[in-house]
Task: inverse folding
């Protein structure tokens, strides 16, 4: 049912200890949507993802999964279809194939998604380029057919063509029904594939809309990245 958000927050505050880093957040991501979460360093993007994933317990407010308030921790949400991709999390001493097997992903499926990985299947993940490592991480997440992908700076430090490749894979998965929430520094690139955008500043949503609606604000969004939180 695409009318029910896969994940949504109501007046969510979350942080570390009792001090909220993000406050009063009302966000939602629906099946088939790519949603971008933008904002300067320290705005609370990672904290938001951690609260959505169940890695942080809300200070107040709630997270709803398919309309139902959800108190389950990260590992339970993973079983229910949540995938989290953060810093390139590969086992550097295992080869690409074994990295996939650890994630219960048949190497053939990963190669369908990223043919680039085929010639690297027997290569130690520590020897892969940054882009290949991130393709491996993303393949491990997407090939298990999650319902929700939370991705924290998927494209950090990667070459523009690789960034395009990763974002296109997310877009295609969303076209098949995935709900995706992407924290990205590449504002323009992510706006090319996103359906909606939230801009966070100092732990609050200060702007929201479609990329089309926000085009005129692009300069303001980008310069807010340069300003300190
Ligand atoms: P960045 O792009 O720099 O990661 P962000 O928007 O993801 O920024 P967060 O990482 O969510 O921001 O951090 C927001 C605030 O929370 C910062 O002031 C940071 O110092 C603080 N913070 C982050 N992690 C912790 C932690 N584990 N314990 C205490 N404070 C933290």
Result:
């Amino acid at each position: 049912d695409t009318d029910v958000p896969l994940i949504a927050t109501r007046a969510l505050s979350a942080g570390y200890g009792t001090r909220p880093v993000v406050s009063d957040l009302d966000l939602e991501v629906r099946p088939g949507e790519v949603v971008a979460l933008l904002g300067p360093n320290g705005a609370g993007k990672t904290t938001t993802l951690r609260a959505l994933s169940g890695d942080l317990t809300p200070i107040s407010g709630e997270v709803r999964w398919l309309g139902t308030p959800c108190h389950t921790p990260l590992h339970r949400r993973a079983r229910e279809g949540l995938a989290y991709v953060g810093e390139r999390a590969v086992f550097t001493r295992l080869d690409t194939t074994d990295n996939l097997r650890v994630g219960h992903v048949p190497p053939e499926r990963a190669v369908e998604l990223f043919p680039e990985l085929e010639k690297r299947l027997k290569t130690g993940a520590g020897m892969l380029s940054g882009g290949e490592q991130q393709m491996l991480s993303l393949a491990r997440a997407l090939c298990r057919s999650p319902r929700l992908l939370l991705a924290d700076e998927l494209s950090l430090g990667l070459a523009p063509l690789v960034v395009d490749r990763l974002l296109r894979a997310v877009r295609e998965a969303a076209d098949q029904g995935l709900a995706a929430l992407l924290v990205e520094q590449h504002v323009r690139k992510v706006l090319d594939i996103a359906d909606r955008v939230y801009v966070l500043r100092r732990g609050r949503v200060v702007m929201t809309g479609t990329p089309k609606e926000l085009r005129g604000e692009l300069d303001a969004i980008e310069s807010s990245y340069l300003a300190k939180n």
Q: What stands out?
A: The pocket of adenosine-5'-triphosphate is lined by residues 16, 21, 39, 41-47 (CB under 6 Å). The chain has a mean pLDDT of 91.
